[in-house]
Amino acid sequence: MTRHFLRDDDLSAGEQAEVLELAKRLKADRYAERPLEGPRTVAVVFDKPTLRTQVSFVTGIAELGGFPMVVDGRLARIGERESVADTARVLGRQVSAIVWRTYDQSRIEEMADYSGVPVVNALTDQFHPCQLLADLQTIAEHKGRLSEVTVSFLGDAATNMSHSYLLAGARAGMHVRVSGPDGFGPQPHFLVAAQQIAADTGGSASYLLDPHEAVDGADVVVTDTWVSMGREDEAEQRAKPFEPYAVTEKLLTEAADDAIVMHCLPAYRGKEISAEVLDGPRSVVWDEAENRLHAQKALLVWLLRQPENQPKKQPQKQPKKQRENR
Ligand code: NVA
Questions:
Q1: Cys-Cys with 114: which of 88, 159, 168, 240 at CB 3.0–4.6 Å?
Q2: Alpha-helix runs per DSSP H in 221-313
Q3: What is the average per-residue pLDDT within 86-110?
Q4: Is 101 annotated in some ligand binding site?
Q5: Is residue 229 within 6 Å of ligand 1 at its C-beta?
Q6: Contact status, residue 122 vs residue 7, Cβ threshold 8 Å
Q7: Which residues of the chain does CATH 3.40.50.1370 include?
Q8: Is 225 in the pocket of ligand 1 (CB under 6 A)?
Q9: How far is the CA of 194 from the centre of ligand 1 (A)?
Q10: What tens digit of pLDDT does each residue of 192-242 get?
Q11: Helical packing angle, 13-28 and 160-171, nearest 10°
Q12: Stated pTM of the model
């Protein structure tokens, strides 16, 4: 069975640690691994807007010796012009891996079912697991560890970043608190999954309505846009209920004295985060953005190394001579 990275808990705790260790090594020596030498092609497909993800995957694939083939989802119209399964079969015959940013998680699961090559989730409505690898790398750099670090995510706790924090943070043994207004809590089954993971790793996972309770003593405070891609028409109605969850200097006085602040970007100063916080001394958002590159390269190296993901041998055609001699 091909190994994919479709959601944060596709990596065991040990595997997550291996990828993060590799990310650290690749940050120190960017050309240390060249598994895509050839060059082998990786398809990088976007059904939603992108900046960091496109730049970091294209740069990363090139640095690994490969060729990044960016596919514009507006042209490909996957699932509309051609089924997800047929697209997967076509891509899988030509490329070494598929990186996809799309809408519902079921789409990327279907891609993985039919591709025969590793599929990487570059953001779906439900998860943003590559961002979390970069976030964990950043937290480890600034806090020296992940285990037992308390991280509070404030904002739309019903969306991809919140779910990914729950699963990836729990895997890393962190105490993960997600906090958002009533009606914007995490999908209950993802919260339960995170709690089950945390029971094994010594971490914890919770949803808190009260942002003050969530931030209390936190080592890391994280936020994200209140209006995720595809939800633009809800922007106005969200503003008021989300206001108490804005990451401001005032709210941060309740976090640990040495708390760091993170944001996957793009950021809306004056909405989910104040300009003084984003541009202030606690903010590690530029390290976080850079680490997308190192963490994703590490993930690709790790995936391509898995025995299940070794290229399948094409059935050998008999040489003409042999056939004639039969
Ligand atoms: N929750 C955001 C993340 C952006 C990187 C979105 O899905 O738009």
A1: 88
A2: 235-242, 249-252, 275-278, 285-305
A3: 98
A4: yes
A5: yes
A6: no
A7: 13-127+288-309, 131-283
A8: yes
A9: 20
A10: 999 999 999 999 999 999 999 999 999 999 999 999 999 999 999 999 999
A11: 100
A12: 0.95
Look at residue 311 in the predicted model and tell me its pLDDT: 81
Residues 301-313 have pLDDT tens digits of 999 999 999 987 6
Q: Ligand 1 center to residue 207 CA distance, Å?
A: 19
Query: Cα–Cα distance between 236 and 245 in angstroms, integer?
Result: 16
Flag whether 292 is marked binding. yes
Please indicate whether residue 264, judged by its CB atom, sits closer than 6 Å to ligand 1: yes
Interval between CA 129 and ligand 1 midpoint (Å): 12
- Residue from 156, 224, 234, 288 whose mutation best tests the ligand 1 pocket (most atoms within 8 A of CB): 224
CATH number of 131-283: 3.40.50.1370
Q: Residue 11's CB: how many other CB atoms inside 10 A?
A: 23
Domain 13-127+288-309 CATH class label:
alpha beta
Q: 3-class DSSP state for residue 128?
A: coil
- Per residue in 276-299, pLDDT tens? 999 999 999 999 999 999 999 999
